[in-house]
Amino acid sequence: MKHFNTVSSYLEYLELPGPEHPMLSVFNSKGDGFLPCPKESSPPITNDCYTISLKKFVKGDLNYGRTKYDFTNGVLIFIAPRQVLQWDNSVVFEQKGFSINFHEDFLKGTELAQQIKRYGFFSYSANEALHLSPKEEKQIESIVASIEIEYQNNQDEFSKDIIISQLSTLFKYANRFYERQFLIRKELGNDLLVQFNRHLEAYFESGQLKENGVPSIEKIANEMSVSQRYLSDTLKKETGKSTTEHLQLYLINEAKNILLKPNKSISEVAYELGFEYPQYFSRLFKKKEGISPSAFRELYKMN
């Protein structure tokens, strides 16, 4: 797999114009113009750059994951360093919007270097892109226009600080707009929760639990074709509980059913549920139910 250490080498591979700054590039379509088109296809590649792109696809539809989206309005996509990129030439688009690429070292020594790690949207995959309303699109485009002015000007001692400040503002708006998207896409949140529980049910019924232990959230998310971070954020917004909490609740409900079988010890129940250490199972059960597994069993006997 090819890896690109600089913005220049990455853009050269894409067959795009070279950057005006060694660690930053800005492409912005204006008026009736279009963005420069990168090479038609590529095997998997990685680079050391952050990318923020607003793409309006004038011709055709695009499949992101398993979902077909209408690109009448803008779609904002965030890519973090060392994420694997790949595309083919199955569909050709005329693109409007913007694309900003900057090397991760561009942020070194700034507050944004730490802040950017807290923005979950850099962990989201393409089918979880941010869909902007026309008003939101204009707000983002105005910030990018300011970035482009600084980018095109002769660089001075103030340029980097100004661009960093504008990037920080762009990310704050993106964070706000993602919050809005989570709130209005409740149907998606419900669907993800149903899928999540179905995958857990299938895993339990397959007998993998005892052999392989409790499934990781990453494994479940991959099977659902979503990123781990997006799954957790969506369920948290919709239900108030994280993916880990949903997994634990599922385990506790299964535990209750098994505990009602008097021929199994507490340790056997723990091992059957995929816990390597029975003490951890007992602590988790008591934390969620307020009583120990043995006390739950006794309580059931009394009733």
TrEMBL record:
Keywords: DNA-binding, Transcription, Transcription regulation. The keyword Nucleotidyltransferase does not apply. PANTHER family: ARAC-FAMILY TRANSCRIPTIONAL REGULATOR (PTHR43280), TRANSCRIPTIONAL REGULATORY PROTEIN (PTHR43280:SF32). InterPro entries: Homeodomain-like_sf, HTH_AraC, Tscrpt_reg_AraC-type_HTH. SUPFAM superfamilies: Homeodomain-like. It comes from the Bacteria. The lineage of its organism: Bacteria, Pseudomonadati, Bacteroidota, Flavobacteriia, Flavobacteriales. One of its GO terms (molecular function) is DNA-binding transcription factor activity. Transmembrane segments: none annotated. This is Helix-turn-helix transcriptional regulator. It comes from Rasiella rasia. Residues 198-299 form the HTH araC/xylS-type domain.
